[in-house]
Amino acid sequence: MQMRISTDPLTESNCYILEESGGCVVIDPNDSQAPLRIITENGWTPELILLTHEHCDHMAGLDTLRDRWPEARVVVSRVCNEGIQNKRLNMSMIMEVYLYFSGHPGCHYDPFVCRPVEECYDGDFSITWRGHRFRFVPLPGHTPGSVGIFMDDNVFFSGDYLLPDREVVLRLPGGSEEDYARVTVPFLQRLPDGIQVRPGHGAPFTLHNTEEYRWELEHFERVDSRQKN
Ligand SMILES: [Fe+2]
Fold first, then answer.
1. How far away, in angstroms, is 213 Cα from ligand 1 center?
2. The domain spanning residue 128 has which CATH number?
3. Residue 30's domain spans which residues?
4. How far is CA 82 from CA 64, 118, 209, 212, in A?
5. 9, 22, 97, 176: which sits with the fewest CB atoms below 10 Å from its CB?
């Protein structure tokens, strides 16, 4: 299997394309053009499309891929499916403001929604693709529909958690510090040492599940306030 990463220059979100024998899995089609171009230039066929969460910078290319490959299987959490159909919950309605404060003043961003997805899951869920197991674990906090995606137990697509050099964002529409602390932090603290993390923004890395790592997660509010001071 080979992995390609397509990073959107504006939002810096990562789209992961995993190819095997001409078929591919697309995780977080972040843009309507770049993932499509990579896939068509290589002559690949998207067979599976997955989302880590409902934010627009992780699914802006979803309907473009579905239009081009209508037979591709799309699998998302039920809450994520609701979010992608809502301009507020998918953040596209406030993306111009968000980008303004992220160093992109004057940037134009049209609000949009995606069509509903037919195959949705609740709770902990697994599927198999070409012998690879994908397991989805609900991780609310950043958004209510956020999940972490394991591939074969040694790779973890973390969505907008575990972002290198960035604090987790919990104050956008649907965000919840309580859910993050109650559900997601304990889960992230138990990730196995040495797992390969593929974050939604920033470079892939190997997780070292040390005392310091667990402490930082547990005391995220103190980390948060430290960074603001
Ligand atoms: Fe996000």
1. 22
2. 3.60.15.10
3. 2-228
4. 19, 11, 33, 36
5. 9
Residue 103 has pLDDT above 70, yes or no: yes
Percentage of the chain modeled with pLDDT above 70: 96
Name the percent of the chain in helix, strand, coil, to the closest 5.
30, 25, 45
* Tens digit of each residue's pLDDT (9 = 90 or more) over 157-186: 999 999 998 889 998 989 999 999 999 999
Taking the centre of ligand 1 as the mean of its atom positions, its distance from the CA of residue 152, in whole angstroms, is 24
Mean pLDDT (whole number) for 195-213: 94
Which is it for strands 45-50 and 23-27: parallel, antiparallel or unpaired?
parallel
How far, in Å, is the centroid of ligand 1 from the Cα of 69? Answer: 25
pTM: predicted TM-score of the whole model, two decimal places: 0.93
Write phi, then psi, for 82 (nearest 5 degrees).
Answer: -70, -40
How far away, in angstroms, is 172 Cα from ligand 1 center? 9
Q: How many domains does the chain have?
A: 1
The whole-chain average pLDDT of the chain stands at 93
